[in-house]
Amino acid sequence: MQVKHFNIGLYDANSYLINGKILIDTGMSTEGLITAISENIDIKDLELIILTHCHYDHTASAQAIADMSDAKIAIHKDDAPLLKNDRVSASAMFGYKAPEIEPDMLLDEGDRIPIGEDEELEVIHTPGHTPGGICLYEAKSRSLFSGDTVFPNGSIGRTDFEGGSRSQLTGSINKLIQLDVNTLYPGHGEVTSDDVNRQIGLSLKMSKSILF
Fold this sequence. Notes:
Elements: E1 3-6, E2 15-18, E3 22-24, H1 30-38, E4 48-50, H2 56-59, H3 62-69, E5 72-76, E6 105-107, E7 112-116, E8 119-125, E9 134-138, E10 143-147, H4 166-176, E11 183-186, H5 196-209
Parallel strand pairs: 3-4, 4-5, 5-6, 10-11
Antiparallel strand pairs: 1-2, 2-3, 7-8, 8-9, 9-10
């Protein structure tokens, strides 16, 4: 699996271009991300944009890139209705209206998305940060795209936004602790391959320690 990591703006989520045809999350800096993608592939080769959740810093550029590339947009079925909600999408927090996104695919727990020969992304429903947050696991390379569920060094996603739940987040991290992860591709922060299973374990401890 080939992964290109983009982080264009200070408050943008990370974006990941996989095997030159799948994009995970888009951030908010549309022109900059289009330029970065176009330096690696013909943007018309982009087939699918997967959104890990509905928050504006992960989704704002999705429709523009989809319109330019004809790529389809996928998001978990529980977050799809929240994309156009100014509050729940956190668009208002960034000073913008929610983007006009029309998803083409509604994802659910256990869905598998082919990304290459003998490679696929498994959808893991990880509510807690948002109701329909997901992580994506590629078993062959033992890679986890964790959105805003867990971050490096034991950090965890916020649960104080509308639709968040600390107890649900703890349950979601319990799912991730069962995986064998070599590389963590987080929604924010640096990519890491440093004893990732231990780092996820620290995230679980963090979530449990402040559960109320």
